[in-house]
Amino acid sequence: MIDIRAYFDQATNTLTYLVIDRDTSIAVLIDPVMDFDLFSASFSGDTVDGILDEIQKDGLKLEWVLDTHVHADHLSAAEYVRRKTGAKIGIGEHITKVQSHFKPVFNVDDVSADGRVFDVLLKEGDALELGQSAIRVLHTPGHTPACVSYLIDDAIFVGDTLFMPDYGTARADFPGGDAQTLYHSIQKILALPDDTRIFVGHDYLPDGRQEYKWQTSVAEQKAQNIHLQSGEDGFVSMRTARDKTLKVPALLLPSLQVNIRAGALPPAEADGGQYLKLPINRI
């Protein structure tokens, strides 16, 4: 059996999850967030340090840090956690497609589009040990080509594929994204038993809701998700039209540069400083 702790980052509306195997106290951290202030370009691990302090205090052993995909709206703390704990970083094997696309966009030489900066590239059907439990991998593309979901016992961590039922589903207009592919990935998740707990990667407050939420279920998603009540054709039409109205995420450019490096900043330049790029008219 597992215990799940959720940490909501209000600055990015992002969830970080700590999943603990009760029998062994072995843990995995899913989608950890790095603190980044866009206006001052300041970068710190204050938030994730609080989680790591908790892990140490409770005598847990962190073996894995997993990202569900290359996030475009927050910086991953995966590399920071690996350096501080020795935990291995995992991500979906199609990260190479994302690296291949954005390497020339940012004109960077240090990024190798083979995923080597991650310890493990995961594919559909893979399983990682988590003490007496297992982390099972589902390839759930559509938001991005590299998206995966992690099924642990009766809980699945879906990243941005699904949101809470009253908010809907992920956008599908990023490079390699596709609304029809996203629909089929969602159906794969909804084919799990109705009582499977779903933990989403973000929450935003739709009109009328006062509290942030991040846990739902397969049954609730099937019955209540506002984007999933009109079948495949209706979903694709809605998603495509809606995506055309959405703004670029505020942290898109810094997030992509860091996250294709597994959460690492670009290498230092001749003066010892590290710099993020703004590619003009290339996004």
Task: Please summarize what this structure is.
It contains 7 helices and 15 strands. With 283 residues, it is an alpha/beta fold.
Textual characterization of the structure:
By secondary structure, this protein is an alpha/beta fold. It has helices spanning about 45-55, 80-85, 95-105, 180-190, 220-225, 230-245, 250-260, and strands at about 1-10, 15-20, 25-30, 35, 40-45, 60-65, 75, 90, 120, 125-130, 135-140, 150, 155, 195-200, 215. Helix 4 (about 180-190) packs across helix 6 (about 230-245). The longest helix has 13 residues, at about 230-245. The protein is globular and about 55 Å long. It starts with a strand and ends in a 24-residue tail after the last helix.
Order of helices and strands: EEEEEHEEHEHEEEEEHEEHHH
* Fraction of residues in H or I helices: 25-40%
Instruction: Choose one word for the global shape.
Output: globular
Secondary structure tally: strands: 15
Alpha-carbon distance between the two ends: 44 Å
Strand order of the largest sheet: 1-2-3-6-8-9
Work out the helix count: 7
How much of the sequence lies in strands comes to: 15-25%
Write the SSE topology.
Blueprint: E1 2-9, E2 14-21, E3 26-30, E4 33-37, E5 42-44, H1 46-57, E6 61-66, E7 75-76, H2 78-85, E8 88-92, H3 95-106, E9 120-122, E10 127-130, E11 133-139, E12 148-152, E13 155-157, H4 179-190, E14 197-199, E15 215-217, H5 218-224, H6 231-243, H7 252-259
Parallel strand pairs: 3-6, 6-8, 8-9, 13-14
Antiparallel strand pairs: 1-2, 2-3, 4-5, 4-7, 10-11, 11-12, 12-13, 14-15
Helix pairs in contact: 4-6
